[in-house]
Design brief:
This protein is of the alpha/beta class. The chain folds into two domains: 86 residues, 3-Layer(aba) Sandwich (Rossmann fold); 128 residues, 3-Layer(aba) Sandwich (Rossmann fold). The chain is built from ten helices and twelve strands. It has a six-stranded parallel β-sheet with strand order 1-12-9-8-6-7. A hairpin with a 2-residue loop joins strand 10 and strand 11. Helix 1 runs parallel beside helix 10 and helix 6 crosses helix 10. The N and C termini lie far apart (51 Å). Bound molecules: nicotinamide-adenine-dinucleotide. The site of nicotinamide-adenine-dinucleotide has 25 residues, from helix 10.
Length: 291
């Protein structure tokens, strides 16, 4: 099937809907728990893209009634200093989620820092315990961007079962967990990466193509199976016609001519990632009502 008018997978609208559902849930739980949910966002240094992401996350928290305990460290912050702050936040009763905004400056060991976070407060779902639970198909906090991909597929009734899915990228942040989630949803999954030969041929097999390589508009029309579902995770800032612009890993206009469904950039997986972060925080919060 080819589609001259693909359906847009509208992450912005879905994220808005999820945020209003979270607000209702928070209002229900708050009298029982006696406080709002809390998310602590740790940012180190002055990476401008990270600053924008952190601001968006904090704004979304405000909308639904999650208290943010943001802490901004200079680029010289030490590993020991950050580990101590995380240890305090682990003990802090008001904190349900802890997020370390990545990437960190080179002198810091992000894996070791993520390991310090209490797995029950791991709002980003990147702690090895939560990633391990994903591998074992056990319930746990799921990493936000991959969870956002799965949520948008579900919202549009696009069941991966029995489909061929190709994920481009094998990072711990996106590629590997999204591949595992698609596998969990019974797709037949291929992971492509920078060593894959004939990427075009691999992509043309895909009923579901998830692009997470961080290469602006590298996925072109000739790499698409007609009727494919195309999920663009990439966020790349490029100069176009003298202006700075965000584009994905997919050449949207030409790929949209062949795809049956496609996510835009911006307005696709980006807002879904924020919605899933808040959702993880509220999931940890709601557990307190049962404790
Ligand atoms: P990364 O650099 O850690 O990983 C990129 C992966 O792509 C690697 O595994 C690499 O092997 C693969 N790759 C690179 N070039 C390739 C090529 N030419 N052919 C095939 N594979 C190639 O990046 P990441 O953290 O996984 O992020 C990927 C993209 O997703 C980036 O653009 C990032 O900004 C974006 N991102 C978006 C969100 C969101 O909320 N939408 C969240 C996280 C990351």
């Amino acid at each position: 099937m080819s589609a001259s008018n693909p359906r847009l997978l509208d992450g912005k609208a879905l994220a808005k809907k999820i945020l209003s559902e979270l607000k209702i849930k928070i209002d229900q739980f708050q009298p029982k728990i006696g406080r709002p949910p809390g998310l602590a966002v740790l940012m180190v240094g002055d990476n401008p893209a990270s600053a924008v992401y952190v601001r968006n996350k904090e704004k979304a928290c405000q909308k639904v009634g999650i208290a943010t305990m943001g802490q901004h460290f200079t680029g010289n912050a030490t590993q020991a200093e950050l580990e101590q702050v995380i240890a305090q936040l682990n003990q802090d009763e008001r904190v349900d989620g802890i997020l370390v905004q990545l990437p960190l400056p080179k002198h810091l060991d992000s894996i070791a820092l993520l390991r310090c976070i209490d797995p029950d407060k791991d709002a980003d779902g990147l702690h090895e315990v939560n990633l391990g639970k994903l591998v074992r198909s056990e319930s746990g906090l799921r990493s936000c961007t991959p969870a956002g991909v799965m949520k948008i597929l579900k919202e549009y009734d696009l069941n991966p079962a029995g489909k061929k899915a190709v994920v481009i990228g094998r990072s711990i942040l996106v590629g590997k967990p999204v591949a595992l989630m698609l596998l969990e949803a019974n797709a037949t999954v291929t992971i492509a990466h920078s060593y894959t030969s004939d990427l075009g041929a691999v992509c043309r097999e895909a009923d579901i193509l998830v692009a997470a390589a961080g290469r602006p508009e590298m996925i072109t029309r000739d790499m698409i199976k007609p009727g494919a579902i195309v999920i663009d995770v990439g966020i790349n800032r490029v100069e176009k016609e003298g202006k700075s612009k965000l584009v994905g890993d997919v050449a949207f206009a030409e790929v949209a001519e062949l795809a049956s469904y496609i996510t835009p950039v911006p307005g696709g997986i980006g807002p879904m990632t924020v919605a899933m972060l808040l959702s993880n925080t509220v999931q940890s919060y709601a557990k307190k009502a049962k404790d």
